[in-house]
Each structure stands twice: as C-alpha cells, then as structure tokens.
Amino acid sequence: MQKLKLLGTFLIFSSSIFAQLPKTDVYLAEFKNLGTQPQMVSLKYLNGFNPNGYNNQPRFFGYDEIYMTSAIDTSQITDIYHFDLKKTESYRVTNTEKISEFSPAPTPLLGSFTCVRIESDGVDQSLWKYPTDRSGQGTRLLPNLKNIGYYAWINKDTVALFLVGSPHKLAMANVKTNVVETIVESIGRCLKVDNDGNLYFVHKISTDNWVLKSYNIQDKSMSVICKMPSGKEDFDIMMNGTLVVGDGSMLKTFIPGKDIDWISIADFSLKGINNINRLSVVRDRIVFINNK
Q1: CA angle 51-274-34, nearest 5°?
Q2: Hey, is 171 helix, strand or coil?
Q3: Going from the N-terminus, what domains does the chain have, and what CATH number goes with each?
Q4: What phi and psi values does residue 234 have, to the nearest 5 degrees?
Q5: Within a 10 A sphere around the Cβ of 119, how many other Cβ atoms?
Q6: Is the bond leading into 167 cis (omega within 30 degrees of zero)?
Q7: What is the pTM of this model?
Q8: pLDDT in tens, 186-207
Q9: CA atoms of 228 and 11, how far apart (whole Å)
C-alpha cells in the first residue's frame, strides 16, 4: 500500500468542464457543541501533499476517515484518495488508466463504496461500486445510464441521482431492477439523506430563487425546508437534523422548525478562505473545500 504523509498542521461533468480543473484546498474545521452552541476549536489544512492541485468532494466515511477526489497538479485524470486523520496518512484508492473517478460515498452495505466515473471516452458518466479493501476491479451499476453526475444512497437498493442534462434532473433508481423514475427537474448537484431516509436537494426554481426541499420516497411528497443562501447549492445534514452550508468565507447552520434564516458559526476570511463549498459533516467536524 502506497502511503503519502499529510503535510501542514495536521465535480456536474462534461468534457468541456474537464478541460481545466481548478486548484482547490481541503480544510477540517473542528467544533465544540456543533449541534447546539457551536464553538470553533481548530482549523486544519489537509492537502499539503497536493498544494497546487485539484482536491474536491471530501466525504467522511467515519470519524477519522475521509475519502475525496484529487488530481495532482490539476491533471485531467482524477483518483479517489483515502485520508486517515488519526495517523495523518493518506493513500490513493483508485488508479484506473485514462478514467477519472469522482464523488466517493460509502454504500449502505459494509465493505464497499461508490463513485462516479468518467469513462475513457471522456463522455460516459457512470456509477461504479468498489471494495474498500481494494481487492477487486469494481462493478458498474445502472449500466444503461450514461449521464450520472451525482448521487445519494437511500437504502441498499435505491439511489437518488442527479442526471446531467438541460435541465438537470432528479431521479430515483433501483440498482437491482435498473428501473429509473424521474422526480423533478432543475436541481442542484448536492443530494443528502437524513436519518429517516428522506432525500434533501436544492430546487433551482429560478436564477435567484434556490430552495432546499425534502422528498419522502415512501409517499412521494415534497416539503420546502428553507431558501438557500444566494448562489449556494452545497450542504450537509447533521445527526440532529441541523443543516450546514458554506457561504463565502463562512460556515452557517439552519435548524428546521426553529431558525428563520441561516446563522453564521465561523468566519475564515482572515485565513484567506473566501469560497467554501463541497462540505461533509460528522459529529463535531466539518470538512470543506475552498476554491482558490
């Protein structure tokens, strides 16, 4: 197993978008009482191994484990990397020739994870499942779909999909039967699932009206949660239902049923962080990306 020491204190897809990958940094913000009365404890820079490259879509797989997408020096081919926060070590999980992987996420079944692949033709966008122990080459899911941009697991058989198109669509797919059902159009790239199995997504009703909604897959009902900060579509959900979003230099929270607007819990402008997105939350930790 190749390991890379972490340095420092401790992607909608298309061929045109992949022409140039942006330089992005990964940070870990640690809090005290994040779910109730948040207090900042520390901020750690995580991508010292790739300071001038593309680092994106971090996802907690456990309290001390982060998977993310990286391309060394913004080369067009991306791989999935694993970060061990306790050991301060990382290693590359995937290394497929002429194929890029994005958006890693654990599956509902132990021992595997999924990601979106850009196949060697540079066009086909597919969903793949890999063993976390890297013992196999992986398996393609939903082989009839070639425009999967993002996704979120609802249960072991059902996955919510962001389908790339004009407009982008939200769909539900069964990975056993390959049946796909379109739910709504004009959605944001971020899909999250709460403890009750409800899907959260951003509905882009108009250019200046982006609304966070929840979708109940049992009765197929939708509920409006709140309006998103202007131009923001990345968010996550804490175990207690509190929502977290990045807005410029700030991290903000929203408690459904209590808050009437997003509340700032941290401001990193003095650290040179002014474009927060792609965040993931676990307990008292938030990992996020800053676009340079």
Answers
A1: 95
A2: strand
A3: 4-291 (2.120.10.80)
A4: -100, 135
A5: 16
A6: yes
A7: 0.92
A8: 999 999 999 999 999 999 999 9
A9: 20
